[in-house]
Every structure is written in C-alpha cells, then in structure tokens.
Design a protein that fits this description.
The chain is an alpha+beta fold and 417 residues long. The protein has two domains: 202 residues, UDP-n-acetylglucosamine1-carboxyvinyl-transferase, Chain (Alpha-beta prism), CATH 3.65.10; 207 residues, Enolpyruvate transferase domain (UDP-n-acetylglucosamine1-carboxyvinyl-transferase, Chain), CATH 3.65.10. 32% of the residues lie in helices and 26% in strands. It has 14 helices and 23 strands. The strands form six sheets. The protein has a four-stranded mixed beta sheet with strand order 21-22-1-23, covered by helices on one side. A four-stranded mixed beta sheet has the order 2-14-16-15. Strands 4-5-3-13 form a four-stranded mixed beta sheet, with helices on one face. It is elongated, with a radius of gyration of 21 Å. The protein binds ligand EPZ. The site of ligand EPZ has 23 residues, from α1, α5, α6 and α12.
Length: 417
C-alpha cells in the first residue's frame, strides 16, 4: 500500500491554479445525459470519483472521452438504465443519476447508496421529490426500480433539509417534466448555480439557483452544451489551511473567493493575512495559528462541513482553543483519532470537538475518508518531523495530484509505493 512521506515545518510558497470542483462536475456529468449529442466539459479534474462517473455514463451507453482537462460526453443514444451495485458502492453520490435517467430514459434501476464513512447517508428527500413529480419508485432488496409512469409532471416541491443532492436530483428530473417545478428550501451551494448554468446552456429554463427557491420550466428540448466547471472551493480551502499551518505565502487562482468566504474568515481570525485580488486569493501566514470563535458547520453560505477536518488540522498545531460543532453529518470526526497520534489535543463530545492547539509531531497515520485524509496531510505539513499518510485511495477521490501540487509549493512530500 503506497503512502505519502511528508516532512513538516517547511513553509509553502508559490501560486496554484485550483482544480475543477468535484461536487460540480459530478452532477454536471449526470446532466449531460439529458441531451442527445456531445457535450464538452472543461476544467474536469482527474479524480477517481470523476472516473467512476464516467464508467456509469459508459454503462448507460454514452461515449466519454478525456482530452487533458476536457471531457467529451456523447449521450446520443443511451442504451442502459441500470447502475450496478458495485458502482453504487464505489461512489454513493451516483444517486445523482436518478433524476437525469428518469428525465431522459423514463426509467432507472440502482441500489440504495448505503452509508459511508460519514455515517448514514439517507436519500428519503431525493425519493420524495421524485415521487412528487410522478416517478414510481419500488424499493426491494436494496434495489430501487424507478419509472415515470405516464410521465413526470412539474409541481411545487418542499425540501425539509436544504440537501445538495436532493436539490440537484429534483432539478434534473424537473427538466424532463411537463410544466413548471418549484423547489422550495433548495440548497444554495455554488455548485447548484454551476449546474443551473450548464442546464440553461443546454436550453433548459432554470432560475433561482443560489437562493432557497429554484424554478424549472420543464419539457424544453435540450441540446448538448459546452461548459467550464467552477473551481473547487473545498480544494482551495484545503490548500489555504495547509499554508496556514505550515506558514508561507500562497496565491490561489481559479476559485471564486466568495464561495469560500466562511473559511477565509476563520483563517484571518486565526492570524493569516488574506487578500482577494480579482479571482486570486493571496494568503500570508507565519504558521502557528491561534484559536478562533466556535466553528459550526452549516448549509451554504455557512461554514462548509467539507472544510471542517482541514481547518481543525491546521488549528490543532497552533495555539489557543477552538470549539467545532459538526451539524451536517453524524460521524465526521474520524480524523480526530489519527490527529491525536500526532499529539493533537482534541476532546470529542457528540457533535462537539474542542481543539487545544499545541505543537504536533510526526506519526504514521491512516486516512479513513476523503476530507479526513486531506486533514492528515495538512497536519503533517505543520508537524515536526517526517510523517507517513496512508489510505491514499480516499484522498484520490477528491484531490487531483495533491502531492504534486504541494511539492510545487515547496513542501517536502514524497509518494512511496
Ligand atoms: C453533498 O453531499 C456533497 N457531495 C458532500 O461533499 C457535502 O458534504 C454535502 O453535500 C453537504 O454540503 C457531493 O456534492 C457529491 P446533503 P450530499 O444531501 O448531497 C441529510 C465531499 O467531501 N439528508 O446536502 O449527499 C444528510 O444525511 C462530500 O466532497 C437526508 O436526511 O449531502 C446530511 O445530514 C462529502 N435525506 C444533510 O442532509 C436526504 O434525502 C446534508 O446532506 C438527503 C440528505
């Protein structure tokens, strides 16, 4: 099993273009299924989750070619409507295909995504929204058999939680429904806006993304489109936290500063100097971040749950005390045990984690999930000595060439096979 060997205490410096957003390219790839013909998607990161999504599209009879950072998706004649169990297990967010398959194919068969390292990942809001649009969904032996009956019909939907995935599934299905769908209580994440922009480029009529009410005038004939995926705000947050704890000067390009304002505000409070220069974010840090006011994860524009682990890792090696409250997922503190092996002082009580900063030392640590793994890398960059981080398959799901990017910034990171 390969691992990263990281010598900490080396300041980072340089400029980095942030990868395309994993959580935007996945629903946009599902949306490409909606139109006959070839869509062209730029700024698609090389991630295992993106490759898995490409596998699903090919299984459905679509063509998927990669040219550098561009994906060409040809959905002229889809032939399949089933996502096999192993692929659903490989990537639970494959459930995002459900709405697009119902809209284009009129049917879909896939298994329950099941839980993951973050705890249970229910899809009740997805299923309720799709059933409200007229989908007939039979659940048996863990498989979902879905049809559109006499066709999807637009109507008002209410989401009791601003679920990102449920909002996206409802938008995609609504494109294939007769009449107008209004999604009340929609998620407001920037990735929802990116999806709206791609759908409208395909000829759909979607409005309101980024606000709690998204409207879709369904039934418009859709055509392929060309689109550039937005920058990954969580990857950007990760690199900023890395420079924050290791110290140094980092300039990020390609991420919209407003999309990670909650994170940059925390880093500024912790002692980093941050300047926004157009679409560039410049950070200057002397390392050894200080404790900040409580960090409570919340739906956008609140503090993103996906950045909780990496900010915790950066603060754990600093000074002072910070309280985290993880409100979005039931078990998103699995990185805490591993950080403790590096000397971190983190006390857990249910959703609350109290971090008391202190110098960290190198250790052999293992990733158990995507963002938790990134947090171990961040902590190692600020720790004294040479750490080993294994479980890289988790990190590869969401970070494109993490070790290459960090090395280019002066970090001493080596991939050991
Ligand atoms: C998306 O997951 C992201 N994934 C997650 O990023 C992110 O953490 C999450 O949104 C929250 O921002 C992708 O976009 C591919 P939710 P999603 O539905 O859509 C509950 C990463 O690290 N819920 O907004 O699955 C759910 O249990 C990943 O990149 C229901 O109860 O998240 C959670 O507590 C991890 N019923 C809350 O809502 C449902 O039907 C928010 O989940 C759906 C969700």
């Amino acid at each position: 099993m390969s691992h990263l060997e990281i010598r900490g205490g080396v300041p980072l410096s340089g400029r980095l273009r942030v990868q395309g957003a994993k959580n935007s390219v996945l629903p946009i790839l599902a949306a490409a299924l909606l139109a006959p013909g070839q869509s062209i998607l730029h700024n698609c990161p090389r991630l295992s989750d993106v490759e898995a999504t490409g596998k699903i599209l090919r299984l459905l009879g679509c063509g998927v070619e990669r040219e550098e950072k561009t994906l060409l998706v040809d959905a002229s004649q889809p032939t399949g409507w089933t996502i096999p169990d192993p692929l659903m297990r490989e990537m639970r967010s494959s459930v995002i295909f459900l709405g697009a398959m119902l809209a284009r194919l009129g049917r879909a068969e896939l298994s329950y995504p099941g839980g993951c390292e973050l705890g249970p990942r229910p899809i009740d809001l997805h299923l309720a929204a799709l059933r409200s649009l007229g989908a007939e969904i039979v659940e048996e032996q863990g498989r979902l058999r879905c049809t559109v009956g006499s066709g999807l019909v637009g109507r008002e939907l209410c989401l009791s939680i601003p679920s990102v995935g449920a909002t996206e599934n409802a938008m995609l299905a609504a494109c294939g429904a007769r009449g107008t769908t209004t999604i009340v209580g929609a998620a407001r994440e920037p990735e929802i806006v990116d999806l709206q922009n791609f759908l409208n480029a395909m000829g759909a009529r979607v409005s309101g993304a980024g606000s709690p009410v998204v409207a879709v005038e369904g039934g418009a004939p859709l055509h392929p489109a060309e689109h550039t995926v937005m920058g990954d705000r969580i990857a950007a947050a990760t690199y900023l936290c890395a420079a924050g704890t290791a110290g140094g000067r980092l300039e990020l390009e390609g991420a919209e500063a407003s999309s990670l304002a909650a994170v940059t505000a925390c880093l500024q409070e912790a002692g980093c100097e941050i300047k926004i220069l157009g679409d560039r974010i410049a950070l200057n840090s002397r390392g050894r971040l200080r404790g900040i006011r409580p960090v409570r994860t919340a739906p956008y524009p609140g503090f993103p749950t996906d950045a909780q682990a990496v900010l915790m890792a950066a603060l754990a090696g600093g000074t002072g005390t910070t309280m985290f409250v993880e409100n979005m997922f039931d078990s998103r503190y699995r990185h805490v045990d591993e950080l403790s092996r590096m000397g971190a002082d983190i006390q857990l009580a249910g959703r609350v984690a109290v971090v008391t900063g202190r110098p960290l030392h190198a250790a052999k640590v293992h990733s158990t999930d995507l963002r938790g793994g990134a947090a171990l890398v961040v902590a190692a960059l600020g720790a004294e000595g040479v750490s080993q981080v294994s479980g890289l398959e988790h990190i590869r799901r969401g970070y494109e060439d993490l070790e290459g990017q960090l090395t280019a910034l002066g970090a001493q990171v080596r991939l050991i096979h």
